[in-house]
Design goal:
The chain has helices spanning 11-31, 34-79, 82-101. With 105 residues, it is mainly α. The radius of gyration is 21 Å and the shape is rod-shaped. This is Mismatched base pair and cruciform DNA recognition protein.
Length: 105
């Protein structure tokens, strides 16, 4: 991971490390430098793991938004609060979109 590491996994950082690891592995295989090959494999694996962790985190966050949005929409409909109902529908839809973007492949 980079020196600008945060506590949350990052899809962008994961992709970067995966790509850099693949490049190092290629250089190691081309030049016969086993240390580069191994370092590349390790960095690629770390990048893939971070990407998948960020993806899972985003999916769960989307699930939470969907549930909370549905609750707010139902409460708003029940109480006649159209603003709460609309806000709940928007949060539900945002969560659904986030789940689609982060759906495991």
């Amino acid at each position: 991971m980079s020196s600008n590491q945060s506590s949350q996994p990052s899809k962008a950082n994961g992709q970067y490390n995966s790509m850099m690891g693949t490049a190092k592995e290629f250089i190691g295989n081309t030049t016969g430098a086993e240390s580069w090959t191994q370092a590349g494999k390790d960095q690629h694996a770390q990048g893939e793991a971070e990407y998948k962790a960020a993806q899972a985190s985003g999916y769960v966050e989307g699930l939470s938004d969907r549930a909370e949005g549905k609750k707010d929409s139902i409460v708003g409909a029940f109480t006649g609060d159209k603003e709460q109902q609309m806000a709940g529908n928007l949060q539900h839809d945002k969560g659904q979109a986030q789940q689609e973007i982060n759906k495991p492949s």
